[in-house]
Design a protein that fits this description.
The chain is an alpha+beta fold. It contains 26 helices and 31 strands. The longest helix has 23 residues, at 662-684. 42% of the residues are buried. Bound molecules: ligand ANZ.
Length: 827
């Protein structure tokens, strides 16, 4: 036990008569803020804990999903703080981007005004959660003091060869009139508005994330949910294969193809070019020209996802030209087909219908030959009914016949390399990060175009390039900044001549790729835009908490960004987020995803104003495991309210001790220590629902001994209960602790209670007794004898319920799990 058993003061004037959340919540929020209770300072003498929630878009109103993330994350951070960690838990705003711009367009107000109003409003709403967010460190990414550094980083990336400009087919949303990253196209639709996405060619800025593809597959420094790592791994999509050249008949041209199945190369019966492949024009014969052109046009309307869909009808056209398979000299037609993507591998593939399902269907449709090359063991030579894609035995493959395909895969690759026609290569699905946006509400890209000097970076001294307030930002398909009267005009820093400014702005994932560094000191105003010393203390983020929808974009870009900063010598860390937790989704009361059209949206403000923030926080924790979410259920909320009122009552109501007895004290003491032990473990493991359930059980036990526990034991239980509940219900516990009971302010600065294993141990244990596998009885034993197998066995054999099944038989074997189960094998 920790404190001296001083009876708590419950004189009538000291106790607050009734639990009225609205009387206490605002009061404590202001008090904590005035006292700077949660302002985090670097302190090398203390272990740090950087708890971070994904900063919100400035979308307008705080919804219940924000509460689910920020309220529960706060409880965890508060727990860590009580555990003695120096906790940084900042909050900022992801304030650039389309949602803000679209909303501004709809309402006819400037994105800046609209965004800053939202920042103001959302700040007030987040404050009602009663979190330990350090508002002295807040930031908004749309402010020049922030985005200056996006520009500074961009220039560094450019100087390092990691930012480059290229013409590339892009995903284009015809409704938003903007380019979308691959990750922003979901099932061929724009992730924001659901409009079908089309393909278009544009000059764009890219970040070379592909340079880090291999390194980004290393997750050894971080502890993330398996599924997020898997999503990133798949997104990066590393594959090992062979790239080799296929010569074109009667020409000097060669077609480079990439395959992961070089063992099937003898079965090639055609070659396919992607419709956008640069050789298509040169290889198309005059007779085929019209058909090929029409096909290319058709293909440009489709997204990559649509083109790759396995259930899609296979289409293609013959170019009129042939190629020669370099391994066996066979002449094969060259086709154009949209199932081959221009942006992957070499944009050309060899068709092997016998071994690839897609190719098999293609061959059937266009009556192309099918030559089996890898067949199942014992194949009888008949035609294949479908592609055989498993490993097997080689046939029709010259010197490789009869070898297992697993072996020939290596052998053929070596042979191809000896012949000098190709080599083994590693390919990645990961594409470079498209940074350009043809939008207004983002960071201007700090680059210039000069007729003499070409592409030139803005000199650092000229930063920031401010986003002009007076641009026409309606979507036209062109960058709004391009039509600004003065923005585009600049002077080339190299030759002093006129230069044109880049008018695209940056993808907002740029903002979120480093904001966690800036939180260390958000007004730091010299390069590199974050205080390296402070960030060095706080980083990496110990616990990052947010939605799983960011598994590949934000979370991959941030890992990339951190590595670039490392290679620029700006940090010695590679991973931004050590641990990650993805909370689940709160559904509407009907169990469906909340949406305005379904009318099932729960507005947290409505509840906070009535039942209070503490009840909302606790209720959200109680819904289920945090990573699973669940439906909002008004009935269960009343259970939480009842619980909080019972806590209030045990802490405030005077007790009449009618029959004091030592057994009650012992029972209470044990319950307290067991609860501390279990609640601590639950909090460590993010099990907030079971944590609360255990606190409820403790309160029940307190009620059982209400009239029989001593003052000392009771008051100690009250103190421990309040400490344990403090992370979850910060206002109620502060009020009871500091005001009602007059204990030292603040409860949130108290150490987390410790438990004593001996005190937590049960006096008695219940051991299940089975006879020949069937449960027959329950044996109550003193905890002290639990490890004595012979003793426990003897006690069990004395039970009449057990004797009924052992009578006249011999005990052949005893299998005992100490204190839990005793299995008797008799016969
Ligand atoms: C011949 C072959 C035979 C293939 C076979 C597969 C099975 P991953 O693992 O994803 O890298 N491919 C290559 N480039 C392509 C592109 N630009 N568009 C569409 N498909 C492309 O897959 C590599 C395989 O995907 C390659 O191996 C190629 O088809 C196809 F029995 O080559 B394969």
């Amino acid at each position: 036990m920790t404190a001296e058993p001083v009876p708590l003061d419950r004189t009538p004037d000291a106790r607050t008569p009734r639990y009225v959340p609205s009387d206490i919540e605002g009061k404590w929020q202001r008090q904590w803020e005035d006292d700077g209770l949660y302002v985090a300072a670097t302190d090398a003498s203390r272990p740090k804990y950087y708890a971070l929630v994904m900063f919100p878009y400035t979308s307008g109103d705080l919804h219940i999903g924000h509460w689910y993330n920020y309220g529960i994350a706060d409880a965890h951070a508060r727990y860590k703080s009580m555990r003695g960690f120096n906790v940084l838990m900042p909050m900022g705003f992801d304030a650039f981007g389309l949602p803000a711009e679209n909303a501004a367009i709809d309402r006819g107000i400037h994105p800046y005004t609209w965004t800053m109003q939202n920042v103001e409003r959302m700040t007030q709403q987040i404050k009602t959660i009663g979190g330990m967010y350090d508002w002295s460190k807040t930031l908004a990414s749309c402010l020049p003091e922030y985005y200056t550094w996006n520009q500074w980083f961009f220039i560094k990336f450019f100087e390092k060869g990691l930012a480059y400009r290229a013409e590339a087919p892009v995903n284009w949303c015809p409704k938003d009139q903007g380019v979308l990253a691959n990750e922003q196209v979901q099932d061929g639709l724009c992730w924001r508005c659901g409009t079908p996405v089309i393909r278009r060619n544009l000059e764009q800025w890219f970040f070379k994330i592909t340079d880090y593809a291999e390194e980004l597959l290393d997750f050894s420094q971080i502890e993330w949910p398996e599924r997020v790592e898997t999503m990133q791994r798949n997104w990066i999509g590393r594959s090992e294969g062979v790239q080799f050249d296929i010569p074109v008949v009667d020409s000097d041209q060669k077609i480079a193809v990439y395959t992961t199945r070089i063992d099937t190369v003898f079965g090639v019966t055609w070659v396919v070019l992607a419709p956008e492949h640069p050789l298509v024009d040169a290889l198309t014969t005059p007779e085929q020209r019209d058909a090929v052109k029409a096909y290319q046009q058709q293909a440009s309307k489709q997204t990559e996802v649509e083109r790759l869909a396995t259930d899609k009808e296979k289409t293609g056209v013959f170019t009129g030209t042939y190629a020669v398979n370099p391994v066996n000299g066979s002449r094969v037609p060259i086709w154009v087909a949209d199932y081959v993507l221009g942006s992957y591998g070499t944009g050309a593939v060899m068709g092997v219908p016998a071994s690839d399902e897609r190719d098999f269907i293609f061959a059937q449709k266009f009556q192309l030959p099918i030559i089996p090359v890898v067949v199942p063991e014992g194949w009888d030579g008949t035609d294949l009914a479908a592609a055989y894609t498993d490993p097997g035995v080689m046939v029709n493959s010259g010197q490789f016949d009869d070898l297992p395909s697993t072996i020939s895969k290596v052998k053929v690759a070596e042979w191809i390399e000896e012949l000098g026609v190709g080599k083994r290569t590693v390919n990645f699905r990961l594409r470079d990060w498209l940074i350009s946006r043809q939008r207004y509400w983002g960071t201007p890209i700090p680059m210039l175009y000069c007729d003499t000097d070409g592409i030139v970076a803005v000199p650092e001294a000229d930063l920031p390039i401010l986003l002009p307030q007076d641009a026409e930002f309606k979507p036209t398909g062109e960058s709004p900044l391009a039509s600004h009267p003065t923005f585009t005009k600049a002077t080339c820093p190299k030759c002093g001549g006129p230069a044109r400014r880049e008018t695209d702005t940056m993808d907002t994932f740029m903002d979120s790729s480093w904001y966690f560094l800036r939180f260390a000191d958000p007004h730091y105003d010299v390069p590199p835009g974050f205080d390296q010393e402070k960030a060095g203390y706080w980083m990496p983020v110990d616990q990052y908490m947010g939605g799983v929808e960011h598994a590949v974009m934000h979370l991959l870009y941030s890992r990339f960004f951190m590595r670039v900063l490392r290679d620029l010598g700006l940090t010695d860390q590679s991973e931004p987020f050590k641990r990650l937790f993805n909370q689940g989704t709160i559904l509407g009361p009907d169990g469906l995803r909340m949406s305005k059209s379904k009318g099932n949206v729960v507005n947290p403000d409505d509840y906070v104003g009535t039942i209070g923030a503490d009840a909302v926080r606790c209720y959200l924790m109680f819904i289920g495991p945090w990573d699973q979410g669940g439906p909002w259920n008004v009935q269960s909320i009343s259970g939480i309210i009842k619980f909080l009122n019972r806590v209030w009552a045990v802490a405030t109501e005077p007790r009449a001790v009618t029959s004091p007895d030592a057994a009650s004290d012992a029972k209470l003491l044990r319950a307290v220590h067991q609860t501390i032990r279990d609640v601590t473990e639950d909090l460590e493991k993010f099990r907030f629902n079971t944590m609360l359930a255990k606190l409820m059980t403790l309160v029940n036990t307190m009620y059982e001994v209400r009239t029989s526990a001593s003052v000392a034991a009771w008051d100690e239980a009250v103190r421990m209960l309040l400490l344990m509940l403090a992370p979850s219900a910060p206002h109620l516990t502060e009020e009871l602790w500091s005001t009602t009971l007059g204990l030292p302010y603040s409860i949130h600065k108290q150490p987390w209670p410790a438990w004593d294993e001996a005190l937590a141990a049960e006096d008695e244990l219940r051991v299940a007794v089975t006879v020949n596998g069937k449960p027959r009885a329950e044996l109550v034993i003193p905890a002290a004898v639990q490890d004595d197998e012979a003793h426990v066995t003897a006690l069990a054999l004395a039970l009449p319920r057990v004797q009924a099944f052992t009578e006249g038989k011999t005990v052949r074997r005893v299998i005992y799990r100490a204190g839990k189960v005793l299995n008797l094998v008799v016969g």
